[in-house]
Design goal:
11 helices, alpha+beta, 13 strands, 5-stranded mixed beta sheet, rod-shaped
Length: 426
């Protein structure tokens, strides 16, 4: 399928528009230059074309020449004939406007402004509009031009989600680290004490000692009884025979009790262990807390690192996507902050290079009408001007240049205005 021939400005007529009295001009398909001194009507002619195509939103506040009641701009753009009117009943009265779009055969088209809105981007009729925008808005325009919006929006969503998750993880991680800092730097060297077993052991020892003391009491009582009997023997020899049996028996019982007496248990070590049990167990609990915190911190740090790696991967995908985009000129690029020129932020490039970049963007727009207006052409250096002309010619873009000169001479593509009218035509 053959490519569609882009529409161009074939003819423009402007009457009583801003500073213009009457201008009729048929520009070339390539570069065209509107020259003249300040106030001659150069800007008015470019504004007339802008208002003709883009409509009321881009028309000046006072489109009608001072002292006149009506203004008219006509343009032949090949596929359409466009006429826009501005009228007022009194010099200080409100201004009404209307537009008529017809085919070359004269058929009137419905919804004319909708047709015109699809022909050109505002960036094409005023590339310096891009130049005056913030870096963020410039970046958004570039992304839209390259068709990268949906993919970048998806990547930004992934990055935002990962960043939010990492923020939560880092909050938990910092809380864990704060709790860990409240614990000793190193875990105390201690072994846990089984308090229950020690209490049972102590009670058993105490019971044994009570039994031993009872044994001892019985032994003392038996000894005293023996001594009493012996005293009675001294006093009453006559009772010796009767009492001997009793004495022998008592002596035997005493001897048996003495021999069977259990040994006393030393409770001091057990009591010492119980005294230190709480401290030892507290130290063990601290050691366990340290181990648990260290384990949690390690896990959360690993999770945060994984999310950081995910964010870097998304950033790398974005950089790769932006690098692979087909920009209108190889010097143009884009980063997170805005457009770049040879890797340097565009707003740091020379003014002439910034203008070259904005014109290159306008020339690369996929508009049906391939035309670019270049205002303030004097800001371009000779080298940049030559580069821009070559670029526009290579892309087949028609251009209208506003030139501020005092001694313009007749030349191809140069229209000289004076006091709102044509002074020299090409």
């Amino acid at each position: 399928m053959a490519e569609t021939t882009p529409m161009r400005l074939i003819e423009i007529k402007a009457r009583n528009f801003k500073g213009l009295r009457l201008v009729e001009w048929r520009p070339r398909p390539e570069d065209n230059h509107v020259a003249g001194v300040n106030g001659s009507g150069k800007s008015s002619l470019l504004d007339a074309f802008t208002a003709l195509i883009l409509g009321p939103r881009f028309a000046p506040a006072k489109p009608i020449r001072d002292g006149e009641l009506e203004a008219e701009v006509y343009g032949d753009i090949g596929e359409y004939r466009v006429t826009r009117f501005w009228e007022r009943e009194a010099l200080d009265g409100p201004i009404k406007s209307r537009v008529v779009v017809t085919s070359p055969e004269g058929g009137v088209r419905k919804r004319p402004q909708e047709i015109l809105d699809g022909l050109m981007s505002p960036h094409a009729v005023d590339p310096l509009r891009f130049f005056r925008k913030s870096a963020k808005d410039q970046r958004d325009d570039l992304i839209a031009m390259a068709g990268l919006g949906p993919e970048l929006e998806r990547l930004d969503g992934l990055r935002l989600a990962a960043f939010g998750e990492r923020t939560k993880v880092n909050g938990v991680l910092e809380d864990a680290r704060a709790r860990r800092r409240a614990l000793p730097a190193t875990a105390p060297d201690a072994k846990p004490v089984d308090v229950s077993a020690a209490v049972v052991e102590l009670k058993a020892a105490q019971a044994a000692n009570a039994a031993a003391r009872e044994h001892r009491t019985r032994y003392v009582a038996a000894q005293e009884h023996f001594n009493g009997l012996a005293a009675e023997i001294v006093k009453a020899e006559q009772r010796l025979r009767d009492l001997r049996v009793a004495v022998d028996k008592s002596c035997g019982e005493a001897a048996a009790l003495l021999n069977s007496q259990p040994l006393m248990v030393d409770t001091a070590p057990i009591e010492s262990r119980l005294a230190g049990a709480e401290g030892a167990n507290a130290a063990c609990r601290v050691a366990q807390q340290i181990a648990e915190h260290d384990k949690g911190i390690t896990a959360k740090a690993a999770e945060a690192d994984a999310l950081t790696a995910k964010i870097r991967a998304v950033d790398a995908d974005k950089a790769k996507l932006l690098k692979s985009a087909a920009w209108p000129t190889p010097e143009i690029g884009i980063d997170d902050n805005g457009p770049t020129w040879n890797g340097v932020p565009l707003d740091q490039a020379a003014t002439s290079e910034q203008l070259r970049a904005t014109i290159a963007l306008a020339a690369d727009l996929k508009d049906p009408m391939k035309l670019v207006l270049i205002r303030d052409a004097a800001l371009l250096t000779d080298d940049v001007r030559a580069q821009v002309l070559a670029m526009l010619d290579a892309k087949g873009v028609q251009s209208l240049w506003e030139e501020a000169v005092d001694d313009a001479q007749p030349a191809d593509g140069v229209l000289v205005l004076e006091d709102g009218a044509v002074a020299l035509a090409p």
